[in-house]
Amino acid sequence: MTKKLEKQRQINHCSRDLDVVSRFYEEKTMKKRHHTKFIHVGQYVAEVDLDLIDTDEGWSPYISLDDARKLDDIRDALKRGDTKSALQRARVYTLTAVAI
Hints:
Layout: H1 3-22, E1 31-41, E2 44-54, E3 62-63, H2 65-80, H3 83-87, E4 91-94
Antiparallel strand pairs: 1-2, 2-3, 2-4
């Protein structure tokens, strides 16, 4: 390959990299805050700690995908009556009726 072609390839490669970088979106400010969520299933209530994410966007606050999966796993465990696995990720309480 000639030196002229090699130089042209380097210029083209650099300009493509700049095109990709210019398409990135501006970084948004995100703040996390602690929140406690209660899940009620049958006679059990689970108290789950998670982080709410606040942004300047319209759908704020929201939770992370990991926290959403955590809530689903705990809810599924309580539906199965598997309090042992629910206790690994949350505080679980039993509800009792005061009066009937």
